[in-house]
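$ ./design --mode recover --in tokens.txt
reading tokens...
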């Protein structure tokens, strides 16, 4: 019976999860700047400070650039969405206005960015940005933010600051929180100097993971990485909150284990009551205790299986993913499970009846 239940549960849960939406809840999406062909990026410095209480991260990104010409120009374009508060930009320490590209601008205004575009027709220009492995999202030129500034020929510093909202991965029992920053636009830069990334996680108090490899310096909660080439198409910082030992224990047992424990307990009680009834009524052809229990026990086990997800989520607390598919559909196993359980109990009841009759005749 246990093997049959396992097969049915696996098949049904696979069907349920197949119909679920993505386990990801995207947070802030910000990418490296797209640069004009007249701009060299000498160095990029990214500082990230995490805040657990507000579920945000403060980003300060500095570009050390060199321009080949004087005058008013558009040196960088940005893709930035779902950030908290303002997206601020300073050029040589002076704040500049960042806004959406005006409708009356034409593609010719951005011909200097053509290496970043996927379409030769600048008026239909698109840019590709990566947030995950093997997955690019195409955005229109008009989805980007721009600013115009008067620059003298030579070196300048452009600083960007914003507050990012957290990403959530709900594919497991406990949410995995993270922040992502796309580096992929840098593949189309005229030049790439060096990249320095600093992550300050002292406001988190959890073990962090990144896709940046071993840090250059610092501790795990305040680490620095340095690169002379792109480390990848994006970088991410993730952490999974600590949970109680009880929650860990329940996750290890899983809903099937909890349902199996309850099922075993109920089966033992059912056996005892069936034996007691049969011992007092050996002449009865059918045992109402056996029949009623065979109807009730499978139903309780299946409903408890569904309820056990809430039990585990409650033990985890606020960090529970609560992403379990349509687990309530398991109740539709009842028409299969109940007859199997009834047959098993009917056989056991027959054996008890014969045993009692034999003892009575001695």
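writing sequence...
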């Amino acid at each position: 019976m246990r093997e049959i239940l396992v097969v049915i549960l696996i098949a049904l849960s696979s069907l349920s999860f197949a119909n679920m939406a993505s386990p990801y809840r995207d947070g802030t999406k910000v990418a490296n700047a797209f640069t004009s062909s007249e701009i060299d990026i000498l160095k990029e410095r990214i500082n990230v400070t995490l805040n657990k209480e507000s579920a945000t991260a403060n980003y300060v990104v500095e570009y050390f650039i060199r321009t080949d010409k004087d005058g008013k120009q558009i040196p960088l374009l940005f893709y930035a969405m779902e950030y908290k508060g303002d997206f601020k930009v300073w050029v040589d320490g002076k704040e500049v206005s960042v806004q959406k590209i005006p409708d009356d601008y034409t593609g010719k205004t951005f011909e200097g960015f053509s290496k970043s575009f996927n379409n030769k027709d600048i008026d239909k220009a698109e840019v590709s940005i990566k947030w995950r492995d093997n997955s690019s999202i195409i955005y229109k030129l008009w989805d980007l933010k721009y600013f115009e500034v008067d620059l003298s020929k030579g070196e300048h510093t452009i600083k960007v600051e914003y507050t990012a909202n957290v990403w959530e991965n709900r594919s497991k029992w406990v949410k995995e929180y993270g922040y992502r920053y796309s580096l992929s636009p840098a593949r189309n830069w005229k030049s790439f100097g060096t990249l320095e990334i600093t992550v300050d996680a002292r406001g988190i108090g959890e073990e962090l993971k990144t896709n940046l490899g071993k840090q250059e310096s610092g501790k795990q909660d305040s680490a620095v990485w340095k690169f002379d080439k792109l480390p990848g198409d994006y970088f991410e910082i993730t952490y999974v909150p600590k949970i109680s030992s009880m929650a860990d224990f329940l996750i290890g047992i899983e809903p099937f284990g909890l349902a199996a424990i309850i099922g075993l307990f109920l089966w033992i009680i059912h056996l005892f009551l069936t034996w007691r009834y049969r011992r007092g009524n050996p002449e009865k052809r059918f045992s109402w205790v056996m029949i009623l229990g065979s109807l009730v026990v499978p139903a309780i086990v299946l409903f408890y299986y569904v309820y056990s997800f809430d039990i585990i989520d409650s033990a985890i607390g606020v960090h529970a993913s609560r992403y379990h598919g349509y687990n309530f559909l398991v109740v539709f196993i009842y028409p299969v499970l109940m007859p199997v359980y009834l047959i098993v109990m009917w056989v056991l009841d027959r054996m008890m009846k014969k045993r009692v009759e034999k003892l009575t005749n001695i």
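exit 0
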